[in-house]
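Exercise 7. Predict the joint structure of the components listed below.
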Amino acid sequence: MIREVAIVSGKGGTGKSTITLGLASLLKDKAVFVDADVDAPDMYIVMEPELLKKEDFEGPRFPVYIPDKCTGCGLCEQNCRFDAIKIVDMKPIFNEFKCDACGVCWRVCPFDAIEVRRDISGEIYISRSRFGPFVHARLFPGRENSGKLVSRLRVVAKAVADDAKKDLIILDGPPGVGCPVISTITGVSLTVGIVEPTLSGIHDIIRVYELSTFFNIPFTIVINKSNINPDMVQRIKEFASENGIKILGEIPFSRRIVEALLQRKTIIEGDVEDGIKEELKRIWNGIQSMLSLTGL
Amino acid sequence: MKVAIGSGKGGTGKTLLSTSLALSLEYVRYLDLDVEEPNGHIFIKPDIREKIPFSIPVPEIDFNRCTYCGECAKACEFGAIFVGTNTVNVFEKLCHGCASCKLACPENAISERPYVVGEISIGRRDKIEYIMGYLKLTEALSTPLIRHIKKEYGMVSGDIIMDAPPGTSCPFVQSISDTDFVILITEPTPFGLSDLEISVEIVRDMKLKAGIVINRADLGSEEVKEKIKGLGLPVLLEIPFSKDIAVGYSKGIPLVDVLPEYREKMKKLWERIREMV
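Solution:
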């Protein structure tokens, strides 16, 4: 059976990709890694993937105006709830950035002056990396449906895992708690929350924890940049123990980790302080025992 | 003047910058549009005087009229309605509130009811009028809430600072649309750069004026910094990495309280943006 583990955080920049990349280089070829942060994907920078296969991601249907047929009646403008259409001098001015692609305008137009175009709003990539199979994507700038793209990405990743006979998929998730995060975590076996010891980090991880709990997914924590504020680390520990959440490990803030990433190296590959690589291994062991995986 | 602060990559300092800007200016409105994970309140510490639930209109089916013809489901681009042989299921979490279903129904069997997806908090601290959107947990769509806050609270004259969500998809686009200026804050790492390039493409497509602030400016590479400067947008300010700023941030202490000399820098930044606008 294929298991999926999602790495999330709520707040951005707490170290999701740093930890996920570290796991990728630790697990070397034992899992399929997925960058599910589709509108700001960064894992590729260190993974240096070799592209094997690409597929288009079809986004929503968008309206296209046919000026010859338009009489400027204004029905589209009146019915659009997103202020995406303005009739100026009897002609529709369409603002694609405000459009929700709901289809009301082309349905209400009595003159068939609005055609429908299916938008290609992103691409999905199946790649090979020095750490094994890597599945990633790119949502084109400003496009919609990042949640749907994540769902599709997970389907592709499962097929890749099947082909490569891997029974583990690790997903580097997006920040936030909305649509793409919900798509990333629904149905996974475990969510790992990466939290930094700041008030914002704590505020945001609690939201992700509650979200994960709502979906009945086991939740566990890694504290990153743990040396920034010991009091806040203490608070995270109290929150975890009150809620029965296991803390898998702590990684300190280190300029040498930043240096490693600048050289496109993971924590495992880089020249980092003593103990950090061992801590990451401990974190992996923790994930493993939570999944009760054997033989990996 | 309406200014949005965005980034692409998360955790580069949007809230650090936008709260410090707000605290340095006279009479300003601060909108926290990062409605999935709003953090501005941690630094501004406003007195909240009002909390208003925010809802979107979702379809309500009148089963006395419904013939299960399925036209509503066909008209829904979001898959939010399922019609079976003698059932209709509405999935509120997928609904955008566009009324396409209602318009499509030949039997006039669809009306609308409000469905709460979030909350708006209104408060004040000194000269800052504070407005925060908070998406209800397990709700997927943040754009309707962002759109509503901007329409309801972002149209006044005067200075408005909008703290945008991370990413480069619809919530970000919605947050920066109809602003006078967008500040893109980044870090000089390949990650910051990669996401910044996407955001720059968007502000260009949207024909918005924009500039860049480099945070933790000494914690990256010179090579990446040069690439950031080569993107064609002015670099307005560089904030070096400092343990004091990081520790202050962790406790909810704004940058301008950790390093008071930044108050002047924030004012100058604002004036420079005003000149550019």
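Discussion. Chain A has two domains: 3-58+122-291, 67-112.
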